[in-house]
């Protein structure tokens, strides 16, 4: 039985065709004219050429099939990896959302200790007010920058995952 991608099954056919051509040549007899022998020889060569052409086509089809199979395996592997990345991204998003919620809850329960009014009333000098306001501004800017980086990172991960899923869907539809 022939296996997929194998061209070894064509070899017996080529031998059979060559034997058939030889039998045809012998059957015509040695008494036949040289033109008859040349005619039979030409027919045999044409048959052999056709068999070789068919073998070449089978080999090309086999190679194309092997390439498509390998590509499908790569796509399936990428899909699996992207699925795992999506799960991890969702988990990270959930953790980040919980952290932000906890911080907001803490700020609500304990109050915003770095309020401008507390800074002004708690300062002992003008220099102390400026130092405290500067520190409060830096902490606030760092908080906003951290939140922005977290959101941008999460968004970039999600966009990348959606892009890979889209590309793989297009590739699978094209196959």
Run of helices and strands: HHHH
Shape: rod-shaped
Question: How many beta-strand elements?
Answer: 0
**Helicity, as a percent range:** over 70%
Count, helices? 4
Number of domains: 1
**Category by helix and strand content:** mainly alpha
Mean pLDDT: 79
Largest sheet entry? none
Distance between the termini: 28 Å
Q: How much β-strand is present in the residues?
A: under 5%
Unreliable spans are 1-5
| Radius of gyration using CA atoms only | 39 Å
Present the secondary structure layout.
Layout: H1 10-27, H2 34-110, H3 116-122, H4 126-174
Helix pairs in contact: 1-2, 2-4, 3-4
Explain how this protein is built:
- By secondary structure, this protein is mostly helical.
- The protein has one domain.
- It is built from four helices and no strands.
- It is rod-shaped.
- The N terminus is likely disordered.
In short:
This protein has 175 residues and is an all-alpha fold. Helices cover 86% and strands 0% of the residues. It has helices at residues 10-27, 34-110, 116-122, 126-174.
Features:
mainly alpha; disordered N terminus
């Amino acid at each position: 039985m022939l296996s997929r991608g194998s061209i070894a099954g064509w070899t017996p056919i080529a031998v059979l065709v060559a034997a058939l051509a030889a039998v045809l040549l012998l059957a015509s007899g040695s008494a036949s004219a040289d033109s008859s022998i040349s005619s039979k020889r030409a027919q045999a060569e044409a048959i052999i050429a056709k068999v070789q052409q068919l073998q070449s086509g089978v080999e090309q089809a086999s190679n194309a099939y092997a390439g498509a199979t390998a590509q499908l395996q790569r796509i399936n592997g990428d899909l699996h990896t992207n699925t795992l990345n999506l799960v991890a991204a969702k988990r990270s998003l959930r953790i980040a959302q919980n952290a932000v919620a906890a911080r907001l809850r803490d700020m609500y329960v304990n109050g915003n200790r770095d309020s401008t009014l507390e800074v002004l009333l708690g300062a002992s000098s003008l220099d102390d007010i400026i130092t405290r306001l500067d520190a409060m501004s830096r902490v606030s800017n760092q908080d906003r920058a951290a939140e922005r980086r977290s959101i941008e990172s999460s968004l970039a991960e999600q966009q990348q995952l959606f892009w890979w899923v889209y590309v793989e869907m297009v590739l699978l539809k094209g196959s």
